[in-house]
Amino acid sequence: MLITTNTFKEIMIMENTSIMPTIVKLMGGKNNIKLVANCSTRLRIQVASPKSVDVDTLNQLKDVKLAKVADHELQLLLNGDVNKNYQTLIKTIGFNEDGRKKRQGPIDFITRFIGDVIMPVLGVITVCGIMKGLLILALQTHLMNPKGGLYLSLYAVSDAVFYFLPLFLGCTTAKRLGIPQFYGGLVGAALVYPTITGKALHFWGIVSRSRYVSSFLPVILIVALMAPIFKWVQAKSPKVVRNFLPGLVSLAIAMPIGLVAVGPASNALADGFSWCIQWFYNFNPIIAGAVIGAAWMYITLYGLFGIVISVVVINIFNGSGDLTLAVSIFNVLVVAGASLAIAFRTKDSSLRDDAYPACVTAIFGVIQPALYGLLLPRKRLFRMTALASAVVGALAGWWGIRKYAMGSGIFGLPTMLNQTHTAFLPILVNALISFVLGFVVIFMMYRHDDDVVGQATPDQGKKKQSK
């Protein structure tokens, strides 16, 4: 990409108002950008054509401390906070929060919709899942009395979000669809009402019987049915009745239809998905765990996490437990160990400064800094880490480990316990093996030529020093 003197002057003028559009232009434009990520210090951009990136001119911009290209990755060290720079860049080029191009396909829409509905409740689900696991540990170690008031009160808190899950998801679904949240919450509350859930309901000769406690798909679909009716009645209603008529009409129409058809059908669909997943897990748990372990880094890399979660979350909510999410916890510990090994072996201080924080964030469940900053530019190490993840995934399948609530990193370990599966020792051992195996494999396989991956050329370094 050739930059003339006049163009450079225009760039410097642009720089004074906003540096990011200038950077995007010098990267070859928005269409040259495939993926945006960041580590603790710099932006890491996957580009389609490295030759379209004008590294020399980028290094001359006053707000750019360092720009370098290795393989198909552009590394940018900018002035200011790296997270703010990341947000500015993805807004400038119109990418999603995960640093990927926005897609409009039906699968992406469905997974994004389910994510928008579940994510607001995810924090509460995580807290309750961890609390439930810790309560089980407290009973095993005889620290609490199972009939005592403290245990019973804390257990009620930990279990309530799962029992009344339709109520929570009804609120978030209604908000996502643009109607008052409490109407969605009312639908969820009605589904778990004692005279509704698990009872035989007769509608004009049709008998419907479904259990909605801890379910998530029926309430989402019933509220989705109610929302357009609510909006249409609201638009047609006189102002004097607009406060109550939309809710009255939409509930009167949507609830019977939901209980006769939508609820039972969605429960059957969820059960079908769950059966297929459990069949895959149970056919050969060792192979299933190995496949999931090897694939998880690629799932994260290609942004397929949302699709996977949308399916396997069924096993969390119905109480059967999920192997995929359990293996994902051990995968992040493998990545944490691999990051620490890179920090120990590298002689590049800049790489070491990236590796230590990447190890810490991976321990707490966030592997993107290690994935994009350390392993992806070093494909051999990436593949070895995936292989180590396959090993610990196979061990998890062999031990029969499942995850019964949401939670990431080391805080996800207690969520692998429930009233039936109370053995914490296999979980702890597998976690330690994961971290140690990731560390040992990468420590042994690391070569000093891995240090030079992604480094600036000597000419670029001289230019930077001469400024």
Automatic annotation (TrEMBL):
One of the record's GO cellular component terms: plasma membrane
Residue span, PTS EIIC type-1 domain: 125-457
GO molecular function, one term: protein-N(PI)-phosphohistidine-sugar phosphotransferase activity
Location of the PTS EIIB type-1 domain: 17-99
Cellular location(s): Cell membrane
Active site (UniProt): C39
Family annotation (Gene3D superfamilies): Glucose permease domain IIB
Record-level GO BP terms: phosphoenolpyruvate-dependent sugar phosphotransferase system; trehalose transport
UniProt main location, coarse: membrane
Key word Transmembrane present: yes
Family annotation (InterPro entries): Glu_permease_IIB (IPR036878), PTrfase_EIIB_Cys (IPR018113), PTS_EIIC (IPR003352), PTS_EIIC_1 (IPR013013), PTS_IIB_1 (IPR001996), PTS_Sugar-Specific_Components (IPR050558)
Regions crossing the membrane: 109-138, 150-170, 182-206, 212-233, 245-266, 286-316, 323-343, 355-374, 381-401, 421-446
Pfam families tied to this protein: PTS_EIIB (PF00367), PTS_EIIC (PF02378)
Membrane topology type: Multi-pass membrane protein
Keywords tagged on the record: Cell membrane, Kinase, Membrane, Phosphotransferase system, Sugar transport, Transferase, Transmembrane, Transmembrane helix, Transport
Protein name: PTS family porter enzyme II
